[in-house]
Each structure stands twice: as C-alpha cells, then as structure tokens.
Amino acid sequence: MSLKFDLIKTDGNARRGRVHTAHGDFDTPAFMAVGTAATIKALTMDMVRDTGTQVILGNTYHLMMRPGGDLVEKMGGLHKFGGWTGPILTDSGGFQVMSLSNLVKMKEDGVEFTSHIDGGIKHFLRPEDSVHIQHQLDSNITMVLDECLHLPTTRERAEKNVDMVARWAQRSKDAFIDRDGYGIFGIVQGADYPDLREKSAKQLTEIGFDGYAIGGLAVGETQETMFNMIATVTPHLPTDKPRYLMGVGTPLDILGAVERGVDMFDCVMPTRAGRTAQAFTRHGTMNMKNARFRDDESPIDDKCGCPACKLSRAYMHHLIKCNEILGAMLLTQHNLWFYQDLMRDIRTAIENGNFAEFKREFIRNYTGEE
Amino acid sequence: MSLKFDLIKTDGNARRGRVHTAHGDFDTPAFMAVGTAATIKALTMDMVRDTGTQVILGNTYHLMMRPGGDLVEKMGGLHKFGGWTGPILTDSGGFQVMSLSNLVKMKEDGVEFTSHIDGGIKHFLRPEDSVHIQHQLDSNITMVLDECLHLPTTRERAEKNVDMVARWAQRSKDAFIDRDGYGIFGIVQGADYPDLREKSAKQLTEIGFDGYAIGGLAVGETQETMFNMIATVTPHLPTDKPRYLMGVGTPLDILGAVERGVDMFDCVMPTRAGRTAQAFTRHGTMNMKNARFRDDESPIDDKCGCPACKLSRAYMHHLIKCNEILGAMLLTQHNLWFYQDLMRDIRTAIENGNFAEFKREFIRNYTGEE
Hints:
2 copies of one chain form a homodimer. Chain A is of the alpha/beta class and 370 residues long.
C-alpha cells in the first residue's frame, strides 16, 4: 500500500489535508463527483474539471455489468476510457449489489445476485473479485467489499455483519496488489451501535489500510444518529490516514461530518438534482421549474462563477420547461460547482482556524435560521 | 438595411466571402448550427464555439411559443438570453407553422394556426408580426415570412405562391427597422418550376434585400432537382449579396450547392444525428450503437480534433448503450465539428482555386466511390 496522505492543518476535529495518487493529488476535505458508468452524468470531463472537482468516484457494480472489467482493462483503464486524468476512487460494488440487484444471497465466501442490466444472469462477487475488477479499472483507491445493512437492524445482525466485514476486509487487502500511488480503504460498519462501530474501527485499523471509510450511514437514520456514529468512530481511526464518509450528503451533512474529522465525501445529490431541476444556492435549494423564475433576470446564485450563473434564472427555467438537455447539463455543473466551492471554503476556513465560524455563517445563510 | 458582405474570392461559381454583423463576422460558405429553442441541443455555447461555428440559427416559431418574443426582448435579446455572443439568424416561423402546427389557414394577410405547445390557442402570424418578433429576438439576420410548398405541387399553386411570397417580402421589408449590422433576407420560392424560380428571384431582387435565401427545397425532391433549381436561381441574384439555401443538408448537398454559388446553410442533420447515435466521418456515417464498436479503441474519426475523438469508439458505444446524456453531447459536438471542418476546408479550397478537386476527393472518401 502506498497512498500518501499529508495532514496539513487541524481546527478542532476538522482536518485539512492532501492525498497523493499516481494520477495527481487532491485536497481534503474533498467531495468526489459520482461517475457511475464512466461518466459524470450530463457533463464532459472538461466541465467536471471546471467545477473544481479533483477526484471522481466510479461505481464498480455498474462498470462490471457494462462495459465489464475486462473491456475497461483492455481500453487501458478507467482514466483513459472515460477521459478523466485525475484521481479515481471506485466503490466495491457491494452497496449497489444490495440496493439494485435481485436475489441477493449473502454467503461467507461472497454475495450472489442477478441484475436486470444483463438480463438476469447469476453473478457471484467475492471480496477478491471486487478487488480484481477495481484493479482492471485501474482505480487509484480501491474499496474493500463489505455488506451495508439498512437501518434499523437488530444487534445480532449488526454483530455478525461487523465480524464478516472484518474477514472480508482482510481478504480484500490480501488480494490487493501494491503499486505506487494506489491504495485500498477499509470500511467501518456496525449499524447504529456505538460499541460495534468502535469494534469495527479497531478491527480494520489492526488490519491496516491506506484510509478508512465509514459505511452504512445515510441509509435512513437521523442526521443526529449519523453525526453520533461519526463522532464514535473517528477517535479510533489513525490520524495519519484519510477518513471517507460514504454516500454523504447534503451541505449540512458535510459540514457536520467535517467538524467530526471526516476528509472525503461522495454523493449523487448535486448531479442527480441537476437532472431534476433543483439548484443549490447559498440560500438553500430552488426548483427551477417554478413559474416565479419565468422572467427572473438574476442568476441562480450571484456569488457563483459557473457558466449557468452567467445566464439568468429565466433562461434556466425556459430550458427546463422545454425539456432541453442543456438544462440538465448547466444545472448539474452549477450544483457540482456549488459543492466544490463549499469544499474549497471549508478547506480555507480550516487553514484559517475559523471553521466553526464559517460553518455557523453558512448554515445561517443556507437555512435562513439564526 | 446595413449588413455588409465581402466577396473575397470565387472559384468557378463557388464563392468565398465574409458577412459583417453587429455581433461579429462570419466566413462563407457558412454552416449555421440550428439552435431551435435558444439552445443548440445537448451543447453549451462554449462547446458550440469550439466546433468552429461562427453563426447560429434560432427558430422564431419555437421562440414565439416558448418563452415568447416579449420575454426574450425583456431579457435583452437572444444573444444575452442564451449566451451566444456571435451572429444569429432567425427564420420567420413560416416553415414550422406549416410543418408543426394544426389548422393552418393561409390568407393574404397572414397565416392562421394553432399549436400543441400552448394548448391550442389560435394564432395569426402576418409578415409584419414575424419581423417584429425577430426584432424582439434581436436577430442579426431577419428572414421574411414566406409560404413553403411541399413538392410535388401544381403549377397553378406554385404561381400563386410566388406572387404572394413577393407581396409578403415587400411587407416584411417595409416592417424591418434599419440598424447597423442587422439585415433582412428575401426568400426565393417557385417549387420545381425553373421559370417561376427565375421570376421569384427577379421579384425579390427588385425589392432589394441584404441577402437572398432559396427556400422550398429539401422538401422531398431529388438532389438533382434541388441542384437544378439552385443553378436556375443563382444567376438571377446579385453577386454582392449572400445566398442562403435553407434547411440543407448532407455534406454532399452542401458541396453541390457551394459549387452552384450558395454561401450559407443550416440543417438539423449534424445535431439531430448526434442524439440518435449517428456519427459523421470522412468515410461516411456510422451508427455508434453497432456492436462492432464495443471494443474498438480507435476514435470516431482520426482526423478530427473534437473532444469525442480524444476518446474511443468503444467509449462512445458504451455511452450510447447506457443511454448516457454525455453520448448525445459528445456525438452532437463531433458532428457539428465535422460540418465546420468541412466548411473550413471548402473555404480554403476556394481560396486556393481547387474547389473542384477538393470536392471530388471528399466525395471519393465519403462514399467510397471512385
């Protein structure tokens, strides 16, 4: 394992750092744009870069189905295939297997499932298979295969889960091939049981990884529970490795998680919202379909430097009303731009030692609450 | 009227020129990208510019329906509304009224129709209304309202059409407000009757316009008929004004029309094809859905400099198979890039006095025929 992480500055538990990969560096706290099928939906990679995005996420589940790991490998890996030259993290496929597939059977050896994408052929995914596919994708950061439980769940189920996740994490690490600038992350589970979360963190730290993800959150629990689980886990993770909160979240989720020591995030929220007429702004979200924008000459957010914000809300409204593809393109780019502006502001605030103040001010503007 | 046109060079009947507008110049022969609803579908205006596009076309029919001429005027015109800073030509709305509307009634005063877009409200469009809306759009080149006949048609119908088109052209010109860098074009009709085409050209020349369009072609006739009609019309048009063949066409249509003295073109072909998996190449078109591209590492066209051609056919195939918006985006840009490369090569060939040779070579490559 040889993924270098510099912890540059801390401010309370908030951390400002940098991860070095074979495909360049990225600054933390980082938001990874989700590029499910070797594309950030509705954006060219140039448009993604322009948002300030430094690292993207690929979904192993989708890519193993279409176009397949063998093909991506033959095409020279995911960077070359999709034209993203920067760092790429891939998930293990486990989360999508459980959320998108049919006939899921968990076994000690791996997970059995069928998928509608390839017409229902039976697949079996072991931790070693997931790592192998992520090697084929040439992913800079490989995630171990885990099992993500829905909440609420029983303690018995969660206990079993934590132990199997640890065994799978060890098998994943064993299957991982060391290369300069590439690494593998373990994933802490344990549902909403603090002692199990702690146990999982310790088990994974003992195995030893390039970074540690917190999985199994943002799956139905309250924000308070999520924050509590993060605060439970982070003290048991090494300070010299990045921490990644999977699948999170809203701007306020991110601020709360950074405050509790998280370094990396991914979420479909900004990109998916861009395809459903939702725009993020410093004053909350807006639905651009709303008729009140019909003749609104102001930009979505006058503090934003993205191409959409050189145009008017009226134009965005017009594009949405006409179902124009450009509406999804510009809104997606705007939302990702907004998220990356937020991450940059968070990093600056930590550098300046005023993260708490920045967070308070952001929330005040965003929610309109004092 | 004050739209300046420089005729720089001729090669046989082919012409190399430049049109000067209040929003910059464009070189002819020119291909105008079709921006129906204040957007070139699936492209940002930056992506359009990158293709080499210098002038775009807006559809008055769509814009008068959504968002309406009043709104675009309030927003500062089409350039500002959609973010295209270069020259814009708008059609009169007449062609779409007849092809897309219901209950069309042609009267001497104008055309009556209903549209599904606004739920079937009855509209009446007179030549003066069309010019007024094009003023609201701040279009650099206004087109007169005409009536476009489907082919074949009777001589009697075509005769009536030619005379009414001339009266409407006069009314359009009378309604046009002179401004520096803005102009109005007449439209020659006459179906496939050479003497009527000649008559129409003479009637319009007598009224006097900044440029002359040839309308009512590419509506079902053979390419040979189209070429014959162009060759019939152009000798009767002034040499010091640009000629515009409306709604045309394939690369081979364009080459044949340039050879007969046409300067400007517009067509949905490259952009529409981009949304239906069709790619233009120097060796003809390809359907990127075709399974033979699944593992094809080569670019769509190795002579093309567009972003899609920095990636593989395999990637384009993957995007199309997954219904990814990026597939439409990249293919649309590629196709427009291909068309603009063709226009640039045509202009260079005319400058070098070897247009005939260039045309022969292009056709040989494109069709595979000697």
